[in-house]
Amino acid sequence: MSAARVTSTPAVTGPRGGKAASHIVRPYGDATGDGMVQLSFTLPLPHDKRAEGAAQLFASKMGMDPAMVVHAKAMGPDFTFFVVYGPVHHLVDTRDVVIVERDYPLLPPKEVNSLIKKTLHRPLVVVGACIGTDAHTVGIDAILNIKGFAGEKGLEYYTEITVVNLGAQVSVPDLVEQARVHRADAVLVSQVVTQRDAHLHNTREMSAAFREAFPADRRPLLVVGGPRFDELATAQLGVDRIFGRGTTPGEVASYLVSALVPPATPTSTTRSSTARSTSSRPATSRKKAS
Amino acid sequence: MSRSTTEPMLDLDPATIRTARSLARKAGAPVVSMAKRHTTVSVERAVLRLAGLEGADVEGIPWVNRLVDVVREDAGLEHGVSLPVWDAMLRTGDDLLTVAQKAAAGSVTFRVPEGKDATKAAKASRAQVAAGIRRIDTSRRQRDKLIAKYGQPPAPWIYLIVATGDIYEDMPQAQAAAREGADVIAVIRSTGQSLLDYVPEGPTREGYAGTYATQANFRLMRAALDETSKELGRYVRLTNYASGLCMPEIASLAGLERLDMMLNDSMYGILFRDINPVRTFVDQRFSRQIHARAGIIINTGEDNYLTTADAVEAAHTVTVSQLLNEYFAKEAGLENWQLGLGHAFEINPDIPDSFRMELAHAMLARALFPDAPLKWMPPTKHMTGDVFRGYLLDGFFNLAGALTGQGILLVGMMTEAVVTPWLSDRDLALQNVRYVFNAAGNLREDFRPARDGYIANRARQVLGEAVDLLDRIVDDTLLNAIADGTFGLMKRPADAGRGLDGVVKKSSGYLNPATDLLEEGATR
């Protein structure tokens, strides 16, 4: 990499450098281009000189050169914890960064509520269910119950969203009827069981029933979720949106608002595109009851 | 773990405290009498479990579920399950398991016996359920013996969590956590177990974000920790969850298998799991009677309010819930030392004086419940991917715990909201706890907030708001207050929610030998 020869020329890589700020960067410790990073990890080794050497070797292999093992501590007889500092020589061209844009802004609950209040002038009604023989309410409950998922509260927490959770094993005719009774803006269906493609059959049956029961402009938004769906298969299944594994309530709420509440694009949408995707977080509200 | 000190840290008006307690009693009493008038499928299944009915059919449906369902179909549940079941056993000469299997196969029908038959069935059921109660008594004595042998760990007890989903992975992890210093191990349940209307059977190796609570898993984990207790010369306590649709059964299994602490909140299931309020209060009362008998310490769930509502604005709802939990617990026979009333360090760290306010809230709980251990829960709501800031927050959480004499300290992890704790996270978290408690030492002795200072005033304010809210609850009735969304902003009407179809009004001929034995304190 010829572009790598920029280590100590602030004019090229510095934030205030030269003619144009460079797109080529590396980590910054206390001087431009020093490439300093910190790293901590555990090795399954008892703490001794060999373990420290192994830690240094490991960090070197990760590209830290020289790797400084600044801290090593035994954790029980079989493990050692390390903190390592050192420079790396890798460079990143910010023009190579690919950002996956979601097609709706991720909004905090407060903003979802105020958007609904301001533009819809009434609560947004969501009817949720597990349809067919599926008794796995884990998914729908994670999205709807106030307890929520991945540190985010479920839709029940949103003051401007009215949630009707019908629970498990709801028949499609019942679901259509309940959607009508509650004047649902959106219907959320969770499907976990995939034996003989049950999730696909059930979803198609559901979307067909809604199309038959409602005129196109009055039909509630149809949203389906589950770990085995292809998020791109909306057209084949006749639904408006498919959510896959790891979807959080905040994503669903944000989508519903963007799909159901007329434009007047909110101001704070800038957070969404670069914000760390919350969906990559595992569920870790550890101290709570299940 | 008596925490009474000669000099109270907060100068609270004793009359206001008395008012708060009497309002909690007024709010709770109608709920208790409602609970006494009802039974649930889970209460009845718990009776069968105490009588020794274990196992499940080929589909994994426990025999207790099969049997209760058939009895309900044949004879109704308003008389309880005991009279029809033991009547059938006496008529057929079969044992309990055989009757359950025959019931599932449809080859036995149940009736509500009358006259001499009823007397005989009542006597037989009491004798068999009493054997289960005596097993609980034996477990309690065994715990007392082990604690007498090893001694009680100093407060606060360090509470650590394991949750791999596989009981055989959990055991070595729990043993490692105990060696690292945990006094209490909690095994988190698989997501959604609280909504199952049955208790899964056998050892389990698959769970989602937790491990199923089963009798076999309880037994395996208790044995593993007994081994480690012996190795360490320190009794390591085991915790699980008596919440959800099967509170009475899980409480019974915990008592039988010598669990030491159980999460058991009077309203958590209603508010956070949308379980029917009547179902919850009936199940809760029975489960707490079992906990009382078993010498189990309950942990209540007030921390949950603060994850949904604002920790400053909703501070008084925590106090109200603690007072209600205390009332329901005492009514069910629990003693002060068994009340791990919950509270949490969840105030937004960006607001000024947040730590002073945390101290005020924590000291208020300490002052209101001087003889309860109190369960102190670490920050979660304001924990972010910034693990360094999280480590500092956990340090302040620990300091507040040291300054306010908390009994049970759930150790905060800097990787909360990032990953399930790594080995190193746990080690760092324990270093944090040890440093703070070692450095602060008995700072609590010297720490007396100014009488009219910020902390004392804030505590008085929260107590005042709690009294006002309790006043409104008494006027409105607790069930209506829950229906109106008074707690955690959730509206939960008494005629809705999960598990309602499992609630049955008792007839005048209702019999429950377990409740009788528990309320009489009898062993036979």
Q: If strands are numbered along the chain, what order do they take across the biggest sheet of chain A?
A: 7-6-8-9-10
* Percentage beta strand of chain A: 15-25%
Give the name of the CATH architecture of the largest domain in chain A.
Answer: 3-Layer(aba) Sandwich
- The stretches of 5 or more residues of chain B where confidence is low (pLDDT under 50) are 1-6
Characteristic terms for this protein:
heterodimer, A: 290 residues, alpha/beta, Defensin A-like, Rossmann fold, three-stranded antiparallel β-sheet, 19% strand, disordered C terminus, B: 524 residues, TIM Barrel, two-stranded antiparallel ribbon, 11 strands, globular, disordered N terminus
Give an overview in words.
The complex is a heterodimer of chains A (290) and B (524). Chain A folds into two domains: 2-96, Defensin A-like, CATH 3.30.30; 109-276, Cobalamin-binding domain (Rossmann fold). Chain A is built from nine helices and ten strands. Chain A has helices spanning 10-13, 49-61, 109-120, 138-144, 172-181, 198-213, 234-237, 249-260, 270-274, and strands spanning 24-25, 36-43, 68-75, 79-87, 92-93, 124-130, 161-165, 186-190, 221-225, 241-243. The longest helix of chain A is centred in the C-terminal third of the chain and has 16 residues, at 198-213. Mean pLDDT of chain A is 82; it is low at 1-19 and 265-290. By secondary structure, chain B is α/β, with parallel strands linked by helices. Chain B has a domain at 14-28 and 152-461: TIM Barrel (Alpha-Beta Barrel), CATH 3.20.20. Helices cover 54% and strands 7% of the residues of chain B. Chain B is built from 20 helices and eleven strands. In chain B, helix 9 (247-256) packs parallel to helix 11, helix 13 (315-331) crosses helix 18 (454-476) and helix 14 (354-368) packs across helix 18. In chain B, 57% of the residues are buried. Mean pLDDT of chain B is 94; it is low at 1-6. The chains are: A alpha/beta (290), B alpha/beta (524). Chains A and B meet through strand 2 and helix 4 of A and helix 7, helix 10, helix 12 and helix 16 of B.
